[in-house]
Amino acid sequence: MSTHGDAAEDSTFVRTYTLTRGRTRPRHLLGLDTVLDAGPGRPGLGQVEECEEILALCLDHRRSVTELAGRLGRPVTAVKILVSDLLDSQALVISVTDAYDSDADADRRPTTHLLAALSVALKRKFPDAIAYRQAG
């Protein structure tokens, strides 16, 4: 039985623990699809190298929490904590613009056919789910 894999896993855990300074929850409510943009502030002193990487990625263009975690190769929870720190310093801001806001994006909007196919697939995958109907 090899302990090399266990040692590597422990090393990753310790690195993540130090990366977040032992914190396990972000101060801001962030979803996996929360889109972030560079803000006017700067990261605080003593913030980890990954904060600079997050900023560099978001300066390039808007990024979701999930994309940042994937590009950094870090657990989503750890990235949420770092993003929360950057939101506190206003180095990042949550982007609230509509992804389909302009007419230039009209060709990239999901079609009704695509949405109907998605609905059918979800109903097939989760047949016992309660259907949500908007009152109107």
Describe the structure.
- The chain has 136 residues and is mainly alpha-helical.
- It has five helices and three strands.
- The chain has helices spanning 4-19, 49-60, 65-72, 76-88, 112-125; strands at 35-38, 63-64, 92-94.
- Strands 2-1-3 form a three-stranded antiparallel sheet.
- The longest helix has 16 residues, at 4-19.
- The radius of gyration is 19 Å and the shape is elongated.
Distance between the termini: 62 Å
Structural class by secondary-structure content: mainly alpha
- Please count the helical segments: 5
Low-confidence stretches: 7-11
Beta-strand share of residues = 5-15%
Sum this structure up briefly.
By secondary structure, this protein is mainly alpha-helical. The chain has 5 helices and 3 strands; from the N terminus they run αβαβααβα.
